[in-house]
Structures are given as structure tokens and as C-alpha cells.
């Protein structure tokens, strides 16, 4: 806004200078035209210059008189009117000041009337400042109007932005509360199912209880996904920096997904590294990261899924790799899958459910750990996600 105001002021100043310059030029042209016209009048004394090329004093006086004459006044007025100058003026004949290098404003040399270039006809405009201000008034008015419109737009935009932010914050809080409200009864259902399975006297697992357990697990996963969305929207999301072992995190994630893995008839292999893969990070969120990647590997596979998890040291830390034998991701989509709510068109057509939040959450969490995630994929062969975590130091 300040730049814009500065620019407008500069523009107004330049415009004023331009108007003054145009006015000066128009007056000069009007004056010269009038003097030219007068020089063609009979009785003009240009020809009366002496043999030595100087004007006699009587000749100069005659010219002075001529300038005050009503005939000249008429010529001058029509000339000024031609150049659209309608300001009151005074006429003055001055002797040229030899010390001045520049031509005085609103003046014209009287050489067409006199042989010597030592007399000037000058006009004095008393009200010229008011005239300039009047000319500038439209320009300044337009400037103020533009500035005012921009200011109003700015205020309007800011008002709506704040309003939108408020709505978004309310939505986030609503999601948070809603998911927490869903979480508690779900945990109770899961606990009760486990208790009932344990208390079964026959020692055979009830298929109905198995259905309740798998479905409530599925529901919990979706509820967690919505919670992740709320987590992602938090601008200053704080993460813990505990000393963790990536190996253990992957193991915990796989253990918590056993039912799902069995249901999909999948095989998940964790190839532990020879040394502990220690990083600094947030246990809760990183376990979710592994769960999301494994869940996708199970979901996006048309036959029995096979997931392999490996760990490699690299110069600045550890790399965790989650590889599957699924449907793969087309190269045109590789940049988009980390965007929030993005779901591949092919997965939207299938019965695979999802919100398109998982990978966006994974990326956000890895970014918060100052890490990096890379993707390698071949259609109908499989996908490999590589997560790089910096050194514990
Ligand atoms: P969701 O799984 O809920 O759709 P994600 O953010 O986890 O959301 O994944 C976004 C998209 O990336 C998915 O719709 C899917 O098309 C693609 N995708 C993710 N992981 C895999 C994978 N392992 N194999 C094939 N496609 C995948």
C-alpha cells in the first residue's frame, strides 16, 4: 500500500510538471505567432534599422507602444484562444538580461519586429497556480479514488480471510471433538470384544466377534484419519524428539495391524538392520506413518499383498523403506499423491475406501522431522516408499 501511495504521489508530481511544461510551450507558441503576425503589419520598424544593424531608440519605443495597442491585444488574444489559453494576463516588454542563460518563461523574442535580439515580450499570469490546480484536480481525484478502492478491497479481503480462518478453526475443533467422541466408544467396543473372545468357553473364536473386531478396527482407522487431518491443519504442530528405534516402530505398527494383515492374506516382512536404527522423533506420529504406508500397501494390491520393510544407514541418518507388490502408481501421479484429499482416479473407481489424507499426513510428519520421502513405483509391479531421517545428533 505504501509503495502504491508513493507511486501515485510520484505520478501526480510528474503530471503536474508535464501540465506546466505544456502550458509554457503553448504560451510561447501563441506569443511567437502573435509577434510574427504583427511583423507583417505595415509600419513595422524592422526595416527601419540603421545601417549599422542597431535599432534606433524611437523604433524601440514604437514597438513598446505597439504592444500596448488594441490591435496587438486582439491578435494576441486570438492566438492565445487558438492555443486554448483563457487566463487573464499582463503584457510586458523587457530588455533582454544578458546575464541570464535561459529564456524567461512565457516570453518571446521581438526579433521579427526589431533588428536586434535584445527585447522580449513577456506575459505575466497571476492566476496560473489556480489554473494548474484545477487541471490537476481530476487526476488527483482519480488517484484518490483508485487508492480508496484498493484500500476498501484490501480491508474487504482481510475481513473475509479472517472470517474464513475462524470457520476453518471451528471446523478443525469440530473434527477434533467429533473424532474423540467416536474414539472412546470404539475403544470400549474393541475391549469388550477382546474380553468376550477370551471368555469363550469352547476355546473357538466366534466368527461374529471377529467381524466386530475387524470392522471396529476399520472404523478406528478411518476415525484416526480424520484426526490426522485436524493434526495437519494445526500450523504450529509440536512433535516430540525422543530417541527411537525405527525397527521397533515398524514392528509395533505391524503388530497393531495383525487382523487386517490376516484378513488380506498378506505377508509383511521386517528386515531388521544389523545395528539399532536410532533417530530422534515422535513415537505416536511415526508409528502412524508406518501404519499408513503398510495400510496402503495392503489396500492397493490386486492379489496377495507382500510388504517388505528394510532399513539402511545413509551418511546423515537412516532410511526406512516400505516396498509392496501392488498395482503401482503411474508416473503422472507421483507428484500429486502427497497432496491433501488426492485420490488416484483408478482408486476412486475401485471399492478401496479412503479420504486421500494418509500420504499428506505422512509427508507432513516427515517434514516436521526434517526428513524426506521419496517414491519409486512401476505399474502392476509395486511401489517403494523411502523415508530419510536425519542423524540423531
Ligand atoms: P487414500 O489411501 O485414503 O486414498 P492416501 O493419501 O493414502 O489416501 O493415498 C493417495 C493415493 O495414492 C491413493 O488414492 C492411491 O491411488 C495412491 N497410493 C498410495 N499408496 C499406494 C500404493 N502403495 N500403491 C499404489 N497406489 C498407492
Please tell me about this protein's structure:
This protein folds into 3 domains: 2-126, no CATH class; 134-231, Helix Hairpins (Orthogonal Bundle); 238-390, Heat Shock Protein 90. Helix content is 54%, strand content 16%. The chain has helices at residues 2-39, 57-68, 70-82, 128-199, 207-233, 246-256, 258-263, 283-299, 345-349, 358-368; strands spanning 89-95, 107-109, 119-125, 242-245, 267-271, 278-281, 306-314, 317-324, 372-378, 382-390. The chain has a 5-stranded mixed β-sheet, with helices on one face. A hairpin with a 3-residue loop joins strand 9 and strand 10 (382-390). It is rod-shaped, with a radius of gyration of 45 Å. Bound molecules: adenosine-5'-diphosphate.
What's the layout of helices and strands?
Blueprint: H1 2-39, H2 57-68, H3 70-82, E1 89-95, E2 107-109, E3 119-125, H4 128-199, H5 207-233, E4 242-245, H6 246-256, H7 258-263, E5 267-271, E6 278-281, H8 283-299, E7 306-314, E8 317-324, H9 345-349, H10 358-368, E9 372-378, E10 382-390
Parallel strand pairs: 5-7
Antiparallel strand pairs: 1-3, 2-3, 4-6, 7-8, 8-10, 9-10
Helix pairs in contact: 1-3, 1-4, 4-5, 5-10, 6-8, 8-10
Bound molecules: adenosine-5'-diphosphate.
